Amino acid sequence: MVLSMKAQADSVALSWRIKERGGLTTVDFFGEIDENADFSDLRRHLKGSVVFHLAEVRRINSCGVREWVNFVRDLPDVTDMTFTHCSPAIVTQLNMIYNFRGPAKVRSFYAPYVCENCNNEEDKLLEVQTVFADGEIKGVPEFDCAECHRAMEFDDLPERYLSFLSEA
Known about the structure:
CATH superfamily of the largest domain: STAS domain
CATH architecture of the largest domain: 2-Layer Sandwich
CATH class of the largest domain: Alpha Beta
Helix content: 10-25%
Number of domains: 2
Strand content: 35-45%
């Protein structure tokens, strides 16, 4: 079953798509989480194991943080929750808001990289098990620039950007 919903009517509205397959529910989120976010209909569709795919969440304001925290806290039929493909906007909130993840585990997230040679900027998908193994941050992987093929640099302070991992 695939179900799509829109939480508000403007061009950056939060929307989602639900996919159910083999006892696993995946929810792809798109847009901005703000004061207009209404998760009540989505909440009714979630049960069992749920994966939130968060790559397309571009912005979250303070009212949206409140709505999100209340949402992930109140999912009585969800037994297991995972965040995957967390956008930089989501990572920022994971680092700033203690209970932003609720009971969820983070599986993967996007991290900012820049090429010093050609100024190309890219968000690269990182797996938590790669950068955070055995209870400690192992560092960030290296990537080559898609434009000039030279080494890219992590475009933040690793200890700051990855701090949410030590709270897992």
